[in-house]
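Retry 2 of 3 after timeout on previous attempt. Resubmitting structure tokens to design endpoint.
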């Protein structure tokens, strides 16, 4: 697996917390909800998908506004780290034998169920999305939210991951990774 530590640049985003706080002064959700959702929305909406070799540093991704899943994962994990959130990176094989990288983020709350409920409410109220559920996975840091910027509409969007062959949904809220190749906590 590619060593993402060299590509992560949390120091590049030292002002991100201030920018998010200033933009949500009148909002009704806890700050951590924006710390988790805003980086995902930025990566999803502003970075065009283009296949590259290896993970590029966030500076390069931001200057070109393009990158693949490895680049977006390094960007997301750098932004989350700058906001004081713990992250993990998974590498998954798809049925087409292509590797895919995905970030996971740990919400700074005691109850993952509370985090998921609040995110569902946020996505419904703020963005008009109607997610069925928020995808979580157990890691050495505990349960974390599944994040994917290159093919998902929202944090925890396991339906998109299932459509693209990276997970298999077993029941309404039970699923498994098809071919988890490697994982790392950052």
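Retry 2 succeeded. Sequence:
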């Amino acid at each position: 697996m590619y060593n993402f530590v060299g590509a992560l640049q949390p120091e590049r985003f030292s002002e991100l917390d201030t920018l998010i706080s200033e933009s949500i002064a009148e909002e009704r959700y806890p700050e951590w909800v924006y710390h988790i959702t805003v980086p995902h929305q930025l990566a999803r909406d502003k970075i065009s998908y283009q296949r590259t070799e290896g993970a590029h540093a966030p500076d390069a991704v931001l200057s070109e506004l393009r990158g693949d899943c490895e680049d977006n994962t390094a960007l997301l994990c750098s932004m989350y780290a700058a906001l004081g959130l713990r992250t993990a990176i998974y590498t998954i094989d798809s049925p087409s034998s292509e590797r895919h990288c995905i970030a996971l983020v740990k919400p700074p709350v005691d109850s993952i169920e509370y985090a998921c409920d609040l995110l569902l409410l946020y996505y419904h109220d703020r963005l008009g999305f109607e997610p069925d559920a928020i995808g979580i996975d157990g890691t050495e840091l505990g349960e974390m939210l599944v994040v994917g910027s290159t093919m998902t509409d929202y944090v925890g969007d396991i339906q998109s991951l299932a459509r693209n062959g990276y997970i298999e949904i077993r029941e309404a809220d039970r699923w498994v990774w098809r071919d988890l190749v490697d994982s790392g906590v950052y």
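Attempt log closed. Residues 72 and 149 are 6 Å apart (CA to CA).
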